[in-house]
Specification:
The chain contains 1 helix and 5 strands, in the order E-E-E-E-H-E. The protein is mostly beta strands and 68 residues long. Strand 2 and strand 3 form a beta hairpin. The protein is globular, with a radius of gyration of 12 Å. The mean pLDDT is 91. Zinc ion (ZN) binds next to loops.
Length: 68
């Protein structure tokens, strides 16, 4: 599965705040994600992130080619 910054993902385990959707803020060796409900930030290694993701809710389309 491929992830981009800005994707909204659903995790297998919800956040204690009651939300279970997260925005991807950083990809790479480590992923940084933000709880879209309370804004809590979490950093976790890629393998753990990939195991924890249930599905992608919203996929961003890369604008690399068109951005100025
Ligand atoms: Zn939360």
């Amino acid at each position: 599965m491929f992830f981009s910054v800005g994707d909204i993902v659903q995790m297998k385990k919800g956040h204690p705040c009651g939300g279970n959707t997260w925005e991807v803020l950083r990809t790479g060796m480590d992923f940084r994600i933000k709880c879209t409900t309370c804004g809590h930030l979490v950093m976790l290694p890629r393998p753990k992130f990939e195991k924890s993701v249930k599905k992608i809710i919203e996929k961003v389309i890369s604008l690399d080619e068109t951005e100025n």
